[in-house]
Design goal:
Layout: E1 4-10, H1 18-37, E2 43-48, E3 58-64, H2 66-73, H3 76-88, E4 93-98, H4 100-117
Antiparallel strand pairs: 1-3, 1-4, 2-3
Helix pairs in contact: 1-3
């Protein structure tokens, strides 16, 4: 069961590169589908947000074990995909995340530290 994730947020396409943005989005879908089929990640979810006046237009949530997530983030292919995305869309952000059972352990750690400091 996935205990870690990568949140990959992105904004609107750079003006004039909308067609390229669609192509790069499709490449990302193919890449994450391949990783899932090969067992390198547990799952992924692409999300497009409704217009809301903010900088975040959508995101991918890539789920796996800590080892799987670390391997993906450190791979040359992930770095290549990220570089392509940065050239096409605004406001790319990549953040590690705790999910599943790791979420509970992270909250327990936070609670323990809070109790120790108060």
């Amino acid at each position: 069961m996935a205990d870690s994730a990568i949140f990959i947020g992105f904004g609107l396409p750079v003006r004039g590169r909308e067609q390229q943005a669609l192509a790069v989005f499709g490449e990302a879908l193919e890449y994450y589908t391949r990783l899932q089929q090969q067992g390198e990640i547990e799952s992924f979810e692409p999300v497009l947000l409704e217009p809301h006046g903010g900088d975040l237009s959508g995101f991918f949530l890539i789920r796996g074990s800590q080892a799987q997530v670390a391997a993906v983030r450190g791979s040359e292919e992930f770095e290549r995909q990220t570089a392509r995305g940065q050239l096409i869309v605004e406001n790319i952000g990549i953040v590690g995340a705790a999910v599943g059972e790791r979420l509970a352990s992270q909250m327990a750690l936070y609670t323990a530290q809070l109790e120790e400091l108060t």
